[in-house]
Design brief:
Radius of gyration: 19 Å
Order of helices and strands: EEHHHEHHEHHH
Distance between the termini: 34 Å
Helix content: 55-70%
Shape: globular
Number of strands: 4
Largest sheet: 2 strands, antiparallel
Strand content: 5-15%
Number of helices: 8
Strand order of the largest sheet: 1-2
Oligomer: single chain
């Protein structure tokens, strides 16, 4: 949700704005990394430093209206994804995949993005899966989930297990009929 608001994170990317409740694509064409690096010697580093401090302040002191804007933009992007999926005669299923940082904080209740996605899916009747319970169980068994190597493979296994369990569940079987 935070990256939806940025044009560069940590590489150039397109982004959407919400204009009169419609998505408007910006930062197109996306500058190549080579073109960004070519301009780097001419960029004032004080501007980059100020931008870093501003972004840090912005996210730490986010106002309710900015948070609401981020939620509305994300919902509009998800609505567009759902529309495309359904236009292909497929059924959407959203899976919330905990990031390595969220896994480390899993017992602290950092669930803003997850609760947003759950509310979004419930309000639109879209199946929703969370990897949270699976990660919590793995941590309770002292399974290593580091950012690289074996821990990364373990995280991917847990994500696949979450999806497998859903696809093999009786509720999903009934939905396919």
């Amino acid at each position: 949700m935070f990256l939806n608001m940025l044009e560069f994170a940590p590489y150039p990317k397109p982004r959407f704005d919400l204009v009169r409740n419609k998505l408007k694509l910006k930062n197109i064409p996306v500058p190549s990394i080579a073109s960004v690096l070519k301009q780097e010697p001419y960029r004032l580093k004080i501007i980059d430093s100020a931008s870093i401090f501003y972004d840090d302040y912005y996210w730490r002191n986010e106002k309710a209206d900015k948070s609401e804007k981020r939620r509305k933009l994300t919902a509009a992007i998800l609505d567009q994804i759902v529309e495309v999926i359904r236009s292909c005669h497929a059924r959407p299923v959203f899976v919330y995949i905990f990031s390595p940082q969220e896994i480390k904080m899993i017992d602290r209740g950092n669930k803003d993005a997850e609760s947003f996605l759950l509310r979004y899916c419930r309000s639109r009747g879209i199946p929703y899966l969370s990897t949270g319970a699976y990660f919590f169980e793995a941590l309770s068994k002292d399974i290593r989930l580091e950012d690289e190597g074996y821990g990364e493979a373990q995280r991917n296994r847990i994500i696949a297990q979450t999806i497998r369990d859903y696809l093999l569940s009786p509720e999903e079987e009934n939905a396919r009929r």
